[in-house]
Amino acid sequence: MFTVWMIAFATVFAGTIFHTSTGLAEYHHPCNRECVLNGPMVCEYNFTVENFYTMSRACHACPFVEADCYRPHCISTNGLARNVLAVNRQIPGPSIEVCQGDTVRVWVTNLMDDGSSTSIHWHGLEQRGTNFMDGAARVTQCDIGPHETFRYEFTADNAGTHWWHSHTGVQLGDGLYGAFIVREPPSSDSRYSMYDKDLSGHVMLINDWPDKPQIYRYMEEMQDRWMHPYLGINVLLNGRGRKHLVDGDPGALGLTMNPNATYTPYETFNVNNGQRYRFRAIGAATRCYFRVSIQDHVITVVTSDGNPVTPSTVDSFMIHPGERYDFILHADQISGDYWVRVQAFGDCRWGGGHGSAILHYQDCDLCEDEPQTLPEGEEFDHELKGTILNPDSEFFYDGQHETHEYIEQKTLRYDHRDFWKNETYHDERVDVRYYMNLRYQANDNSMYSHPDYYPQESRYGLITPTINNLTLYRPTLPLATQWEDVTHKRLCNASTVDTVNDCNDDLCYCTHMLDVEMGQVVEFFIYGQANDPHQMHLHGYTFRVVGDGHVTNNWNDNKAFNSVTMQEVIERDRNGEFPRILTNPIYKDTITVHSKGGYSIIRFKADNPGVWFFHCHNEGHLMQGMALLVKVGRPVHTMDGAKQFPHPPNYFPVCGKTVGHLNKIKQCDVSGASALVVQMSTVILVAVYSLLLL
C-alpha cells in the first residue's frame, strides 16, 4: 500500500478524553448526542495503532493506588504485564457513538514498532455503496503498512450495537477492538419505551485474554499442541479483570506505601434504584463464548446483532464471538453492589475461564465509596439458575434441558413492536442455495505438518477447519477495487474442485468465492460437523435466520452426528426435513452454528454489490482459512452490462505491482487440477496521493 501524505488536515478528533470509574474512556464527542430526524453530522476520529504494554510506567502505583489504574494510557487488564496492541493507548480502543445517517470519518495511523500492517473492520455496518471501506485487508483494501495513514469514510446506515476490530492476523485478540454504537431517534427506536437510560457507560465488551500474546498461542497450537494446559485464558469486561496478584515494589516509584500484593480493579456499571437501563453486550472474543448473568437480577434481551427480537426475560444468556445482545436491566433490588458474572466456554473453560464486574447502585447509603468490597469467591458462582437464552449444544447433551428452563434462538422472532407487521416470505423464490460443511481436515498438510518429519498425528489432535474441504487463500490484491489485477486462476468453489477426492492428502488452498448476481435471493445451509461451534459472520449484509437446530436430537450420543454426511443432510433437506421459518425470522449478521451436528440456514437478497467476507469468527479458524468470499454484481464493464461495484474515491490507495516466487503449497484452480500457489513479494513503490477533504 502507498503511504498517504495529507496536504490538508482538519481537526481529526473533536473532544477530550477522561477516565472515570469505568474501564472505558468516555468521549465528549459532539456526535455522541440525542438523535433527531434529519440531523446528520460528520463525525471524525483519529486512531493511532501502536505496540504497547500493560501495567506500564503509565500506571504508576496501580493497583496499590487504585486511582492510578484509571490514569491516561494505563492499561491494567488483569494485572499481568505483557505486550499488547492498542489504539490511542487504551484497551478497548475508542468508542464510536453516532446517530443513524451520520458520516463517519476515521483516520487510522499505523505506528506499530514491529513493522506489522493492519486494517479495521466495522463489524455490523453494512457499508452500502462503500464496499471498499469494509476493512478486510486484501479483500476490500490494501494493508495499512508501517507509518501509513488510511482514511475510512462511510455512512452509519444501520442502527444498533456494533463494534470495530482489526481484520489482520490475530491483532483483535491483543487489543485492537472497540464499540461502535449507532443510535436512532426515539420515534424510530422500537425499544425506546422499555428503558429510561441508554448510557455510554453501559456498553459491555467481553473478550478472552490469554497470559501471552495471541500469536504465541496460535503458533503453539499450530506447531506444538492444540491446548497447552498451562497457557491460561482470562476474561475481561471492558478491558478489566482480576486474575494475577500484583506484588511489585511501589517504593521504586518514589512512593511510600504497603507493598502487599493486591489485584487490579474490576469494571463497574453504575445504576440508580428504580431506573431501567439499556445495556449493550458485545462478544469481542477471539475464540471463546460466554454465559452472562447479573446476581439477583433478571434481564430482558431485546435485540440481537442490533436488530429487535422478541423480548425475552431470562436469568442469563449465551453470547459468542461477533454477536451482540442488548438487554434491559431494571434496577429494582435493594441498593448495594452485585456481581456481573461471565462464565467462559470453549477453550476458555480451562485456566481461569471466567470474568467479573460489579453492578453498583449509586444511591446505596451503606455501600463503600468505591464498589470493590463484595465478598471474594461469590463472583465465581456460575451455577445455572432460572432461564437461559440461546444455550449451546452441551446444554442438551449434558441433560440440563431436562431440569432447566431455556429459550432457543430459533424460537425468537423479529419484533418491531410499535411498528408491528408480519414479514412473510412464503412466496419467496431462492435463486442460489449453497450447502456448506464446516468440518476439520485431518491430513498431513504442508501448511502445518510434514508427512515425514512431524506428521499430523503429532499435533495432539488439532486438525484444520475448512468450508467444504476448501481452505481460503486470501488474494494479494483487493478484489473489490483491483479486480482486473488479480490472477483469477486462483478462484475456486465446490463446483470447480473435486473436494471429496482431491483435498484429502493436502489442503485445497485457493480463493474460495461464490459468484452472485445482483437481486438474487441467496440461501446458505451451514452444517457444523465438528465438536466445536462456529460463529459465522457475513460482511455487508444483515441476513434472515430461516432455520436453526441439530441434524440429530439423540442427546444420549454426542457422537451420533459423525455418521451424518453432508450428502445425507442435502437429501434430507430436499425431502423437507428442515423446515424454514418464513414469518418474522430474526435478522443477524453473525450466526452460531452449534457443535455436534448443529445447522443454521440464512437468507439475504444480494442488493449490496462488492466482495464480502464470510468467515468463522474464531480468530484461529479464520487464520487457518475457514472463510470464503461472496462476490455480488459485476466488478467491471462487460458484455452483460455496466460495472456494478461501487467506485472508490480518488484518494483511495492502489496496491503496488508485484512479482512472484513459487511456494510448495498445493492450490486448487478453477479446473480442479493442482497448481502451485504464487506468493507475491511487493515491489516498493513511492507515490504521493492528495486527500480530497469533503
Describe this structure in words.
This protein is mostly beta strands and 694 residues long. 4% of the residues lie in helices and 34% in strands. It is built from 4 helices and 38 strands. It has a 7-stranded mixed sheet with strand order 13-21-20-15-18-22-23, with no helix packed on it. Strands 26, 27, 28, 30, 33, 35 and 36 form a 7-stranded mixed sheet that branches. The longest helix has 10 residues, at 214-223. It is globular, with a radius of gyration of 25 Å.
Summary, kept brief:
The protein is globular, with a radius of gyration of 25 Å. It is built from four helices and 38 strands. It has two domains: 17-411, Immunoglobulin-like; 432-649, Cupredoxins -  blue copper proteins (Immunoglobulin-like).
Strands, helices and their partners?
Layout: E1 17-18, E2 26-27, E3 42-53, E4 83-87, E5 96-99, E6 103-110, E7 120-123, E8 149-155, E9 160-166, E10 177-183, E11 203-210, H1 214-223, E12 233-237, E13 267-271, E14 276-283, E15 289-294, E16 299-304, E17 307-314, E18 316-319, E19 324-330, E20 337-345, E21 354-361, E22 387-389, H2 393-397, E23 405-407, E24 432-441, E25 464-467, E26 470-472, E27 491-492, E28 508-516, E29 521-528, E30 534-538, E31 543-550, H3 566-574, E32 587-588, E33 590-593, E34 598-605, E35 610-616, H4 619-623, E36 627-632, E37 658-668, E38 674-682
Parallel strand pairs: 3-6, 5-10, 11-14, 13-21, 18-22, 22-23, 24-29, 26-28, 27-28, 28-36
Antiparallel strand pairs: 1-2, 3-4, 6-8, 7-9, 9-10, 11-12, 14-19, 15-18, 15-20, 16-17, 16-19, 20-21, 24-25, 29-34, 30-33, 30-35, 31-32, 31-34, 35-36, 37-38
